[in-house]
Design brief:
The protein has an 8-stranded parallel β-sheet with strand order 7-6-5-4-3-2-1-8. It is built from 9 helices and 8 strands. Helix 2 (29-36) links the parallel strand 1 (19-23) and strand 2 (42-45). By secondary structure, the chain is α/β, with parallel strands linked by helices. Helix content is 38%, strand content 19%. The chain has a single domain (3-216), classed as Alanine racemase (TIM Barrel). The chain binds pyridoxal-5'-phosphate. Pyridoxal-5'-phosphate (PLP) is lined by residues 23, 25, 46, 67-68, 195-197, 211-214.
């Protein structure tokens, strides 16, 4: 697997301003270091235990992004160092992140995860819930949290029209909040959507952060 080569090909394809989080779940330190040696620093993990274990074994200047479901009782393990949480899926979780961030004298960048796929999922705000939360959001109530935007995953399907229409729903809400002039629009500048199978469509629909695993590291076992 030519990890560095795969990564460079992807970079060439992404428009300027679109960031890439390399999803390192299930990958060992030597694979991750091949990517690190290209200069890439944004890495994503979906499990707290795996994330903290890797963080301790890898260089300290990696910016770790949490991209998977986060249980409230595990926030404290990542609050001291996490650079971005993409998977904020409840108000309860925001409150806990806020509390743990303050304990660590930090402000943690967060994205609200919105459920846009047709597949059943326990996780994520509905579009309506996210919209209501953001319309009533006052940054002063959560001094440890910066709501930077939205994250979503499209249905796992070959039908690109379904994928596109789901991404369009998310980018519609993103634009609406961004242009609203509401307090929530202050720091609202990131839209995390697109994985190995659908990142091209996501970028066409306005993604600012793609989360890519298999296209860099190969298929997972
Ligand atoms: C695993 C994962 C990805 C990356 O998936 P690939 O298909 O390997 O690119 C992106 N986002 C989330 C939330 C994931 O869990």
């Amino acid at each position: 697997m030519d990890i560095a080569g795969n990564y460079k090909n992807l970079l060439k394809e992404l428009p300027e301003g679109v960031k890439m989080v390399a999803v390192t779940k299930t990958r060992g330190p030597s694979a991750i270091m091949k990517l690190y040696d290209t200069g890439h620093r944004l890495m994503g993990e979906n499990r707290v235990q795996e994330l903290t274990a890797k963080k301790d074994r890898l260089p300290g200047d990696i910016q770790w992004h949490m991209i998977g479901h986060l249980q409230s009782n595990k926030v404290r393990y990542i609050a001291p160092f996490i650079s971005f949480i993409h998977s904020v899926d409840s108000v309860k979780l925001i409150k806990v992140i806020n509390k743990e961030a303050i304990k660590n004298s930090r402000i943690i960048d967060c994205l609200l995860q919105v459920h846009i796929a047709t597949e059943e999922s326990k996780f994520g705000f509905s579009v309506k819930e996210a919209s209501e939360f953001l319309n009533n959001f006052t940054p002063g109530s959560y001094p440890g949290v910066r709501i930077r935007g939205l994250m979503g995953m499209a249905t796992f399907t070959d039908n690109s029209e379904i994928v596109r229409s789901e991404f369009r729903i998310l980018s519609g809400l993103f634009k609406e909040i961004r242009e609203s002039g509401l307090p929530a629009s202050n720091d609202f500048d990131e839209l995390s959507m697109g994985m190995s199978g659908d990142y091209r469509i996501a970028v066409e629909e306005g993604s600012t952060i793609v989360r890519i695993g298999s296209l860099i590291f190969g298929e997972r076992e």
